[in-house]
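Reminder to self: C-alpha cells first, then the designed residues, so the page reads top to bottom the way the pipeline ran.
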C-alpha cells in the first residue's frame, strides 16, 4: 500500500524473512513518532523461495529530508532517541525471525521506492539472511580499570640513602618523576594483561562463533572513567550461546586488573550489509524530483 500520510517519507528499520511469526511480531509495534510499523514486500518476491519484507513506518518529511537529517545527526539527544526507537523495532522483530538490521536513518521517498530497492537487492539480502539465520550477536569488551596513584611518601619527602646512612630529601621534581615512572610501569603491565586477555578471549570464542567483527574502542561518555581497549562483536549460533558466554567469562577470571563485559544477545548489526551504492536511500543521495 502506498504511504497514506501526507508529507511523509518511508523509514526502513530492517529486512526480515516474510513469515507468519514476522507478521505477528509487528502487531502493535510502533516506530518513530509512534507510527505503526508495517511490512513491505518487494513486487517480485512472491515467486521466490525466500520472500523478504522491509519493516517500515512513515516519518515526517520535514524531519527526515536530507537537509534536516544533516542537522539532526549533530543533535545528540535527537540521535539517541532515534537510535533507541530504531533498535527497539529491530530487536522486537529479531525475537521472532531472522533480521538484517539497516543503518540508522535509512529513508526512502515512499513505500513504492522502498519496495523497488528491496526487489533490486533481494538476492543479496536473502544470501546474507541465510548466513545470519539462527544466530545472534554478542559483544565482548575489555576495559582497563582506572589507574590509582602508587602508594608512597608524599612529594618533597622522598629520600635516597647515602654512604653516611642519612637520607636527604629528594627534590619535588625527582619525586614527581619517580612517581610518574611507577605509574607508567604499572599501566604497561595492565596493557600487557589486556593483550593476553584479548588473545584468550579470541581463542575461546573461536570455538563457538561463526564470525567476528573488531570495532574501534569506545571513547568518552560511553566508557566512563575506564578505558575501553577491545570492542569485538561475535556472531554466535543460538544453540551455542550459553556455552560461549560461560566459557568467555570463565576464561578471563584470572585477569584482575581489567574488566571484561559480555553483552547480548543482539540483532546482528555488526554483520549486516549497507544498501548498495546503486540503490542508496533518499537520505544519502537526495530526493528525486
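Designed residues (289 positions):
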Amino acid at each position: 500500500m502506498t504511504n497514506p500520510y501526507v508529507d511523509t517519507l518511508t523509514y526502513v528499520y530492517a529486512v526480515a524473512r516474510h513469515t507468519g511469526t514476522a507478521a505477528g511480531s509487528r502487531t502493535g509495534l510502533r516506530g518513530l513518532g509512534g507510527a505503526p510499523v508495517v511490512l513491505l514486500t518487494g513486487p517480485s518476491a512472491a515467486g521466490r523461495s525466500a520472500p523478504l519484507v522491509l519493516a517500515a513506518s512513515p516519518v515526517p518529511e520535514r524531519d527526515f529530508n536530507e537537509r534536516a537529517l544533516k542537522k539532526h545527526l549533530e543533535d545528540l539527544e535527537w540521535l539517541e532517541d532515534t537510535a533507541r526507537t530504531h533498535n527497539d523495532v529491530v530487536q522486537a522483530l529479531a525475537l521472532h525471525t531472522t533480521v538484517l538490521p539497516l543503518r540508522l536513518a535509512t529513508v526512502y521517498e515512499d513505500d513504492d521506492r522502498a519496495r523497488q530497492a528491496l526487489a533490486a537487492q533481494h538476492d543479496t539480502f536473502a544470501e546474507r539472511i541465510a548466513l545470519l539465520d539462527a544466530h545472534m550477536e554478542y559483544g565482548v569488551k575489555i576495559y582497563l580499570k582506572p589507574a590509582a596513584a602508587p602508594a608512597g611518601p608524599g612529594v618533597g619527602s622522598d629520600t635516597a640513602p647515602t654512604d653516611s646512612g642519612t637520607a636527604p630529601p629528594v627534590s619535588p621534581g625527582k619525586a614527581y618523576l619517580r612517581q610518574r615512572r611507577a605509574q607508567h610501569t604499572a599501566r604497561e603491565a595492565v596493557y600487557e594483561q589486556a593483550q593476553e586477555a584479548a588473545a584468550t578471549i579470541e581463542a575461546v570464542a573461536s570455538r563457538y562463533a561463526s564470525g567476528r567483527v573488531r570495532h574501534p574502542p569506545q571513547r568518552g561518555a560511553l566508557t566512563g572513567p575506564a578505558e575501553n581497549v577491545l570492542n569485538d562483536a561475535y556472531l554466535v549460533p543460538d544453540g551455542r550461546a550459553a556455552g560461549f558466554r560461560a566459557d568467555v567469562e570463565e576464561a578471563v577470571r584470572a585477569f584482575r586488573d581489567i574488566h571484561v563485559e559480555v553483552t547480548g544477545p543482539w540483532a546482528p548489526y555488526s554483520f549486516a550489509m549497507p544498501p548498495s551504492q546503486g540503490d542508496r536511500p533518499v537520505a544519502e543521495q537526495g530526493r528525486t524530483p
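The longest helix spans residues 172-205.
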